Amino acid sequence: MATPITAKALLEALDKEGVKVDEVRNWREHNRNQQGPWGPVHGIMIHHTVTSGAKETVDLVYDGRSDLPGPLAHGCITKDGTVHLTGHGRANHAGTGDGDVLRAVIAERSTPDPNEQDTDGNTHFYGFECENLGDGDDPWPDEQIDAIVRASAALCRHHGWNARSVIGHLEWTNQKTDPRGFTMDALRKKITERLK
Ligand SMILES: [Zn+2]
């Protein structure tokens, strides 16, 4: 059972991890808490945005879309390796997924293939939306991957989690394919290295 990190502690944790941070507008008060609970938090979810262009991508993650209000994540990680903080509290990123996966994340064991939509992920996961077209061809620059690793490690370190607490959206639900272009196992290996 983990209480969500405070905005202040998040900034300190990201700074300690060497993350380049951009605080977007009123991110500390920007959330969907009126829609449901936020916490206890159990893990971190990685996404791709299917967009290109840093400004458009950050604005989309902050504002959301007509059918899905923002914030769409806690942070938007652009190709230059900046972590733009876009919300603090409940965010519309994870949707529903498989409770068996959540139980595996809590136990920090490898997750089963998702096959149910029975659990609200927005309550339990931090989310990072990462600027990428998600077509399998759009490259993931080293700076961006490094920022994903560092931002994830910052939250893992704060909560005493290991890299098993970091999953991709595609590991949460069989309705999604993100992130595409690298494997979550490769990303978790880098996070494990970073946490040593
Ligand atoms: Zn996603």
UniProtKB/TrEMBL annotation:
Its EC number is 3.5.1.28. The keyword Cell wall biogenesis/degradation applies. It is an enzyme of class 3 (hydrolase). This is N-acetylmuramoyl-L-alanine amidase. Residues 27-180 form the N-acetylmuramoyl-L-alanine amidase domain. GO terms for biological process: cell wall organization; peptidoglycan catabolic process; peptidoglycan turnover. It comes from the Bacteria.
